[in-house]
Design a protein that fits this description.
- The protein is α+β, with helices and mostly antiparallel strands.
- It contains 21 helices and twelve strands.
- The protein has a five-stranded antiparallel β-sheet. Strands 7-9-10-12-11 form a five-stranded mixed β-sheet, covered by helices on one side. Strands 6-8 form a two-stranded antiparallel sheet.
- Strand 11 (659-662) and strand 12 form a beta hairpin.
- Helix 2 packs antiparallel against helix 4 (98-126), helix 6 (146-155) runs antiparallel to helix 7 and helix 17 runs antiparallel to helix 18 (517-537).
- The longest helix has 67 residues, at 182-248.
- The chain starts with a helix and ends in a 7-residue tail after the last strand.
Length: 682
């Protein structure tokens, strides 16, 4: 039988004893808690009974406009609910004695009789004559007592007051009859509480007895299990101690301890074993940290573990030597497999073949790219290159490249650039010149990237060198000239927008000079602000949408002066679009077009300006409700120069056109959709 099984069996016995005790103790405690709960419920019922008696008698001494009677009925209802709860409690049917249950049933019976009297009191209270008596009570100053009122009514000779006296007497008799139940109820309450207290103490005594019994049984079980367990372990411990000594090569000697302490013998054997293998663990630690020097392989013969450790060290030394040879260029080198279970050797050979294959693939990739490539370590020594880099420098082979300083050839006389190349600083598309072995200067484009090892630390530098011919430079100059021409065209388009608005505004100013000179001055000031913005916009590629909308509001203020209340503008601008950059003077021609063609049959003009983000694009939507027939295909004709110019600007900058849609039910919707990135030209 195993030690684990013995321990497990002992624990199971102790756990069963504990669980039995916990179950019994829990049951008794539950009974006690339930009984205490029922006792509190009974006390509450007793208190409510006293309240009923108090309020009933108080209706005689002080009617208090019916409030005392209401308190009496409320106490009666609460008493009835509490008594029903006590009758339906689980304790009454489960663990209460027969005597307690009988007393509780008697209590319920007495209450049923008392309820008959209470109902009679309620019936008298509901009679018409008593309601009239209640009015007489209310008129009484001071305490509203019934008996003095009764004496007053009975002494009166009027017939109706005699009727009131008889009704009041009937109520007084019903109330005075009610205390007949009081003594019986109080007796039952006291008897039930006394018997509950006896039951409660009995349960407490049982619980204490169970605790003492559990302690005795648990202590006895521990003593018995400990003795049996100690006797069953003594012989295996001695056998284990003898085997440890034999494993270490020591002779087994009889124990000299008169007490025959087997554990002491085992402790001595374990101490010897620890000392025996301390030296071997130190050597193993050195082996695990990569110390494969020859002295480690000359281990003294120290049992099975010592021989095994020596073989492991020799095997790892062989793998380390092979790894050094692979690092020196002997790709594909393999070690001998010790056995069919030599997973480490087979994995090493597999990785060696993979390295050789990947190195061959990498070399072919280097040769296949169209740019010169150079890999160096942190000291600037050449790791790898390709024939295009050798051709660019005019070097015969890699050996001649390694004899010189290739980074000096790439950097030329620029010492700052050479420091950046050695440090592996990131360089992208740097136009430079290199000096080949013939002394020629060749225009090149440099790209530099750092090489990182597995620890994310820089292990070298990779250079990509592109030969920049005259044709490439001419192509760049051509692109630059085309960009300048595009900018000039955009400025011309913006300049073409302004005269149309200027003509309309000057007509307005001329009109108001004769009729309202102050308004004319205001229009001139707004016109000056608009042209100041227009002049500044010729020097800027983009402005924020909020700035463009501010310009549009100034424009519309002038238009509102021209058109009066017939022009109505509605803005719906999302806050997340206000900082998006758009070309300046882009929206003004669309607004002018809406004002010119967006009037209804009565000449009223309603324009909606909406902006929102749709994906990665800014969408500006300008709509009107004009009644004129619109042909979408003809909107970009020469007759509408403003829309045509805006469309041309969008095509030039973003390769996108204006979007048109017929409004519902009439009118035109013009949409401008551009990338929602600052200064982003398509």
């Amino acid at each position: 039988m195993s030690i684990r099984y013995r321990i497990f069996r002992s624990y199971i016995i102790l756990i069963i004893i504990v669980l039995i005790y916990i179950g019994l103790s829990f049951s008794v405690s539950s009974f006690r808690l339930q009984m205490e709960k029922e006792k509190n419920c009974l006390l509450e019922v007793n208190i409510l009974w006293g309240d009923i008696l108090v309020f009933m008698n108080e209706t005689m001494s002080n009617w208090n406009e019916g409030e005392t009677y209401g308190s009496f009925l409320s106490s009666t209802n609460r008493f009835n609910k509490s008594l029903v709860s006590l009758m339906d409690s689980p304790g009454k049917s489960s663990f209460y004695g027969k005597g307690i249950n009988q007393y509780i049933n008697n209590l319920d019976s007495i209450w049923e009789l008392a309820q008959v009297n209470i109902k009679r009191i309620e019936e008298i209270r509901a009679e018409k004559s008593f309601l009239e008596i209640e009015e007489l009570l209310v008129l009484k100053p001071g305490l509203q007592r019934m008996y003095p009122l009764y004496m007053e009514l009975i002494s009166d000779r009027e017939h109706q007051r005699h009727v009131y006296a008889y009704a009041l007497k009937e109520y007084i008799d019903a109330v005075e009859f009610f205390p007949i139940y009081s003594d019986t109820m109080n007796y039952l309450f006291s008897e039930i509480l006394e018997m509950m207290e006896i039951e409660y103490k009995r349960l407490q005594l049982i619980q204490n007895f169970l605790s003492i019994l559990f302690f005795v049984i648990f202590l006895f079980s521990i003593v018995m299990i400990s003795g049996h367990f100690t006797n069953s372990l003594s012989l295996p411990i001695m056998n284990l101690s003898n085997k440890l000594k034999g494993f270490m090569g020591k002779s087994v000697e009889p124990s000299m301890d008169p007490s025959g302490d087997e554990l002491m013998t085992l402790e001595t054997s374990v101490d010897d074993l620890i000392d025996h293998y301390t030296h071997l663990s130190k050597l193993a630690h050195r082996l695990s940290t990569g110390h494969l020097e020859t002295s480690l392989l000359d281990l003294p013969r120290q049992g099975v573990v010592g021989n095994a450790l020596k073989e492991v060290a020799s095997y790892l030394k062989e793998l380390a030597d092979a790894a050094d040879r692979i690092r020196n260029g002997e790709y594909g080198l393999e070690v001998s497999i010790k056995s069919e279970h030599d997973v480490l050797g087979r994995s090493f050979n597999f990785m060696s073949r993979e390295i050789a294959e990947k190195f061959s693939t990498l070399t072919n990739m280097f040769e296949a790219i169209d740019e010169g490539l150079l890999l160096t370590d942190n000291k600037g020594l050449v790791i790898e290159t390709n024939h295009r880099f050798l051709d660019l420098l005019g070097a015969k082979d890699r050996t001649s490249l390694e004899l010189s300083d290739p980074l000096m050839r790439v950097a030329g006389n620029d010492s700052c650039l050479r420091d950046k190349l050695i440090s592996g600083e990131l360089i992208s598309d740097l136009n430079s010149e290199i000096i080949n072995y013939r002394g020629d200067k060749i225009p090149v484009k440099l790209n530099v990237r750092p090489l990182l090892n597995a620890g994310k630390e820089r292990a070298g530098v990779m250079l990509l060198v592109s030969n920049e011919s005259v044709r490439v430079r001419m192509h760049r100059e051509k692109e630059k000239l085309e960009a300048q021409a595009m900018e000039a065209e955009l400025r011309a388009l913006r300049a073409q927008i302004n005269p149309h608005f200027l003509f309309n505004t000057l007509n307005t100013i001329a009109h108001f000079i004769e009729t309202d000179s102050s308004t004319a001055v205001g229009v001139l000031e707004r016109l000056a602000e608009l042209f100041r913005y227009s002049l500044l916009s010729t020097k800027r590629k983009t402005v924020a949408l909020s700035e463009e909308l501010l310009h549009i509001k100034g424009l519309l203020e002038i238009e509102c002066i021209r058109h009066g209340s017939r022009l109505n503008i509605n803005y719906k601008i999302d806050n997340n679009t206000r900082d998006v950059e758009i070309p300046p003077m882009l929206l003004q021609p669309i607004i002018e077009n809406a004002i010119s063609y967006g009037g209804d049959s009565e000449g009223n003009i309603a324009i909606n300006i909406v902006s929102r983000l749709v994906g990665d694009y800014l969408l500006v939507e300008i709509s009107d409700h004009g009644v004129k027939d619109i042909e979408i295909e003809g909107l970009l004709s020469t007759s509408r120069t403003g829309l045509k110019n805006v469309n041309q600007r969008l095509l030039t900058l973003y390769r996108r056109s204006l979007e048109f849609e017929i409004n519902n039910p009439r009118g035109l919707v013009v949409r401008v959709r551009i990338p929602a990135k600052e200064g982003s030209y398509g």
